[in-house]
UniProtKB/TrEMBL annotation:
Coiled coil: none annotated. It is found in: Cell membrane. Residues 57-319 form the G-protein coupled receptors family 1 profile domain. PROSITE patterns: G_PROTEIN_RECEP_F1_1, G_PROTEIN_RECEP_F1_2. This is Type II GnRH receptor. Residues 1-20, 342-365 are annotated as: Disordered.
């Protein structure tokens, strides 16, 4: 993509700097057809690597959480929703981004343009909002442990709200994106060209999604974990003062299993913040100073978007790190397949036994 990148360049995300289609289309005398540059080639290669890893790890996590032997805890629906959102990012956002960068222009028609842009934003909203639900759940469990019996119903209601809001907030994509053909050139792009009469209107639209997709979830998650840390700190102070507390086990301020689950969710939230913050900051710069494309190397935009997609791969890794049963299931499955492959005759390889059913998380938080 060249310096005179416009709305007709292939977007990389709904809220990205070079991806956000502008309402202004340059005249043919100054406009250059976007090309598949070396930076874009790196982006496609890195995206495909992340796609393979994210698909395998998230599908393994889905099987482990969804088919566990132990009775389901109230945390299981949250993890199932999180991995479902990650799989949407994996199978919608990543392949679409890679193919779009290779083809440069749009070949899918108007209807597919609208639907895929909707699904991209829907997947991003779902991932962010489910992290908010997990944070609210941890907040309630730690601060109000005696009300955990109602956690199942409360979490189902919050998940319903999260998925519904994700759909509603992504729906405008169905109306503002369309397949636009460049007059006088054999070039078609899926863009918002013509949907906004003024550039500031598009900036407001993008800022609205930035606030609801990143700022609001970040504030809610920060508030939840700040209150949790404050609660734990006050408990420690009261313990030192010799006060007695109603505890579930031994002398622990918070049961070990619950603390382990809390640490896991904190790391998951931090991975979201670390992976996406640089990309969103670049987006703000672009929305208010579009000329930044002339002074910022192209590879910076691509690297930051790939780094943001890395968040999809982090969740199963973090879950596996804090869940020994998940690691044990994967190891048992791998060793079982190796033993069956070594013992089975070549013409009877299909008779190998299946891997043992994966366990659910050991945490009961």
């Amino acid at each position: 993509m060249s310096e005179n990148m416009s709305s007709l360049a292939p977007p990389t995300s709904t809220v990205a700097p070079p991806t956000l289609p502008s309402t202004w289309t340059p005249p043919l005398s100054t406009w250059e057809t976007p090309s598949f540059t070396s930076a874009a080639q790196f982006r496609v290669g890195a995206t495909l690597v992340l796609f393979v890893f994210a698909a395998c790890s998230n599908l393994a996590l889905l099987a482990s959480v969804g088919r566990g032997r132990r009775p389901p805890s109230h945390l299981r629906p949250l993890m199932l929703s999180l991995v479902s959102a990650d799989l949407m990012m994996t199978f919608v956002v990543m392949p679409l981004d890679a193919v779009w960068n290779v083809t440069v222009q749009w070949h899918g028609g108007d209807a597919l343009c609208k639907v895929l842009c909707f699904l991209k934003l829907f997947a991003m909203y779902a991932s962010a909002f489910i992290l908010v639900v997990i944070s609210l759940d941890r907040h309630h469990v730690i601060l109000h442990p005696l009300n955990s019996i109602k956690a199942h119903k409360r979490n189902r209601q919050m998940l319903l709200v999260a998925w519904t809001l994700s759909i509603l907030l992504a729906m405008p994509q169905l109306f503002i994106f369309r397949a636009v053909r460049m007059e006088g050139a054999d070039f078609t792009q899926c863009a918002t060209h013509g949907s906004f009469s003024r550039r500031w209107q598009e900036t407001v639209y993008n800022m609205f999604h930035f606030i609801t997709l990143y700022v609001v979830p970040l504030l809610v998650m920060s508030c939840c974990y700040s209150r949790i840390l404050l609660h734990i700190h006050l408990q420690h102070l009261r313990e030192k003062a010799g006060e007695s507390y109603l505890r579930r086990s031994g002398t622990d301020i918070i049961p070990k299993a619950r603390m382990k689950t809390l640490k896991m969710t904190v790391v998951i939230v931090l991975s979201f913040v670390v992976c996406w913050t640089p990309y969103y900051l670049l987006g703000i710069w672009y929305w208010f100073q579009p000329d930044m494309l002339r002074v910022t190397p192209e590879y910076v935009h691509h690297v930051l978007f790939v780094f943001g997609n890395l968040n999809t791969c982090c969740d199963p890794v973090i879950y596996g790190f804090y869940t020994p049963s998940f690691r044990a299931d994967l190891a048992a499955c791998f060793h079982q397949k190796r033993r069956n492959a070594a013992r089975a005759p070549p013409n009877r390889g299909s008779g190998a036994r299946r891997c043992p059913a994966p366990h659910s998380p050991s945490e009961r938080g």
